[in-house]
Specification:
Layout (H helix, E strand, L loop, with lengths): L2 H19 L10 E2 H6 L1 H4 L3 E8 L5 E3 L2 E7 L7 E6 L12 E8 L4 E9 L8
Parallel strand pairs: 1-2, 5-7
Antiparallel strand pairs: 2-4, 2-6, 3-4, 4-5, 6-7
Length: 126
């Protein structure tokens, strides 16, 4: 094989390996605010979403069936989402905590979470 043909084969091989490596990578948007999801419900219902907020006080319900709570917007607590989660109980899950969730928005006000990530507690709180 000539040098030119070897170069072309190498470039095609590298492109193929890169395409296979990136096949299942999620390039979707970052985290949306609860207010953004609530304001544009039609755009997100039926889609996977990533959002963050605060667990509303007196809304956390942990049972053998799963966990449910109301997620409030960080900046405007008038925006809320009902969250249902059936995975493993995250450590230190408590009302008033900041969390991030990923899941499917099943209606304009309901999300079935598939992942919950707790916010880092501040060691400098007053």
């Amino acid at each position: 094989m000539e040098k030119k043909q070897k170069t072309i084969v190498a470039v095609v091989f590298i492109a193929l390996v890169a395409a296979i490596a990136l096949w299942n990578v999620d390039f979707s948007q970052g985290y949306l605010m609860v207010s953004e999801l609530s304001s544009n419900q039609d755009s997100y219902v039926g889609s996977n979403v990533n959002t963050m907020g605060i667990i509303k006080n007196n809304s956390l319900d942990m049972s053998t069936d799963g966990i449910s709570f109301i997620l409030q917007d960080i900046e405007d607590d008038s925006f809320e989402l009902n969250v249902e989660y059936t995975g493993a109980l995250p450590a230190n899950l408590a009302e008033g905590d900041s969390i991030s969730i990923s899941g499917n928005m099943v209606s304009g006000t309901d999300v079935e979470a598939t992942q919950i990530v707790m916010g880092c507690p501040s060691k400098y709180s007053e």
